[in-house]
Automatic annotation (TrEMBL):
Keywords carried by this UniProt record: Cell membrane, Membrane, Transmembrane, Transmembrane helix, Transport
A Pfam family reported for this protein in Swiss-Prot or TrEMBL: SSF
Protein's organism: Streptomyces mirabilis
Ranges annotated as spanning the membrane: 6-23, 44-66, 72-95, 116-140, 152-173, 180-197, 217-238, 259-283, 303-332, 359-378, 384-403, 410-432, 438-457
Cellular localisation: Membrane
CDD domains per UniProt: SLC5sbd_u3 (cd11479)
Similarity comment: Belongs to the sodium:solute symporter (SSF) (TC 2.A.21) family.
PROSITE patterns: NA_SOLUT_SYMP_2 (PS00457), NA_SOLUT_SYMP_3 (PS50283)
Protein name: Sodium:solute symporter
InterPro entries attached to this UniProt entry: Na/Glc_symporter_sf, Na/solute_symporter, Na/solute_symporter_CS, Sodium:Solute_Symporter
Domain of life according to the entry: Bacteria
Membrane topology: Multi-pass membrane protein
Amino acid sequence: MAVDYTVIVVYLAGMLAMGWWGMRRAKSKSEFLVAGRRLGPAMYSGTMAAIVLGGASTIGGVGLGYQYGLSGAWMVFTIGLGLLALSVFFSARIARLKVYTVSEMLDLRYGGRAGVISGVVMWAYTLMLAVTSTIAYATIFDVLFDMNRTLAIIIGGSIVVAYSTLGGMWSITLTDMVQFVVKTVGVLLLLLPIAVIKAGGFSEMKAKLPTEYFDPLGIGGETIFTYVLIYTFGMLIGQDIWQRVFTARSDTTAKWGGTVAGTYCLVYALAGAVIGTAAKVLYPTLPSADTAFATIVKDELPVGVRGLVLAAALAAVMSTSSGALIACATVANNDIWAKLRGAVRPRGDDHDEVKGNRVFILVMGIAVICTAIALNNVVEALTVAYNLLVGGLLVPILGGLLWKRGTVHGALASVVVGGLAVVGLMATYGILANEPVYYGLLSSLVAYVIVSLATPATDPAVLAAWRERLAGRGADAEAEAEPAAVVA
């Protein structure tokens, strides 16, 4: 394992070095939180694909393939569909808004007063998303070093917190680009073909497994529908995803770069399912489907390659973890803390802005690590996160973009009713039940429509300013037009 250890150590050292380099670039709030809004198509596509394809997509996607066969691709496939929908239909408008958070968008659209409540829901989502990614370090470090779970979470989480705190979005962008390349090589170009060959090829796989393993709908129609509600719609409104859209240098970059990333996700989804299916042939009686990835990597790959593929899994976890962490800190600082204390900083106070956001990343990072140590069930934590996001925020966000009659009172009612319904239904039916997101989303929609129609329409001046921002006019340039090179 010495060679494998060397690969992993070099990779982790590289992540910290990029964090240090990013610190030298992040001199303003815009640089720190959204990489100066100047990423070009190549880097934008790679980093967007990196953040949406995390540990759940890699380790969990292979596990679903082990359990259900090719239809196990549906979870990651719906993530790709969501990213495609966001990129084609909404990303250009989102990028033109020139905001930092989803809650800022809601304040612009509805005329204020929606930000704090929506910020709390978004904060809870991003916190739980970061926690689920951090928990996954335990699986990878256990395979690598037979390490204690708590120690693995502390080490993995500390590295992400370190480079995220140092350089903000610049560090995360650079590390995500490396992680995208590592994942592509490790999972698609190495693990996928090796797993199929070790399993005897597709003909042998079909001969040894039940036919339902090769049924595209074998996982069940209700499960697929739930995945669409949670993950496809979740991709449309998550702060972690929007914050990446804000990094695009233009609306064209956001649209077409995101389309490339979404297409990549569809390929990655199928690859994970095929790897899991091959693992089922090789190890038909594993105690848990979630161990399929680690088992096939540990037992079937040659020295060196094994280290690279494990680095790919680590890259998948780190990219989602860092993206969720900076999103969590951005929401906590800009949407909750600043508004609760009524702070209005003078323009040009960029140093203090960067320092404040850096402190929040550190504090949120420590909270994520502690929560990850206390929790065990990744699936339940991820389900809570997406149920809150979709049930509480999908309707007011998409309603604001698509229905001009929506009002701030309707938006607030939608967030509160949908969020409370989801929490109550999870307590009643169970966290993993489908009913919470179904009925939570429906109640959010009903509240939004009824309250919006029953209250005065949004001030025409607010709507006029909103249309100007959507068109890319009237946005405060935030001194972001500073001369700087565009990053490819």
